[in-house]
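Is zinc ion placement plausible here? Inputs below.
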Amino acid sequence: MNHMDITVLAPFDSNHDYTKSVFGAVDCLNQCQRQFRFRARRWRTEESDTELMRAEAARYAHALRTELRLPPDKFFLAVVASRLEGNWFSFVDHQARCGFITIAGCSLFSQFPIESFLGVELIQNLQEHLLEWADYSYAHLRPRGCLNDLCEFKRDISLKIQSGYVCSECQRAWVADRVPTRW
Ligand SMILES: [Zn+2]
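Reply from A.M.:
I modeled the complex. Tokens:
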């Protein structure tokens, strides 16, 4: 079956190792469908208190591609321990074909295992990439338990982790914007 490979970088440094959580999330996603093959890869990084700025994301993605010899044209996802600009859970740089997901403070806003948070964010970022969705026009300001809840109040993410749901409005948007079925 035709499937899309997505590399997911799983960070570890001298003080922390998040690879078990990332590999756990990836295993769950791979077991429940066959269209996407997530491939977790250990990635040695340096601990940093500096938040990752959107303006820096493309340069950083390019440096990672070079360092880890990732294919130049393939979308990949990097789980990072540092915070992201604007306190986002994640963002995609469409030009660089890369998404960043932070686990900073994860245990403070969700009582669920970190794997479940990562699972939701991996899917959400893949969706952003496939739809080339750059303007957040689908995001729901008021949480409804959908993948695309904005979750300005970060604890609201627990609702979509529990629901595992994509609302009918978002499903219609997927069809209208023609999510590709071949890659
Ligand atoms: Zn929705």
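Short version: Residues 140, 146, 148, 167, 169-170 surround zinc ion (CB under 6 Å).
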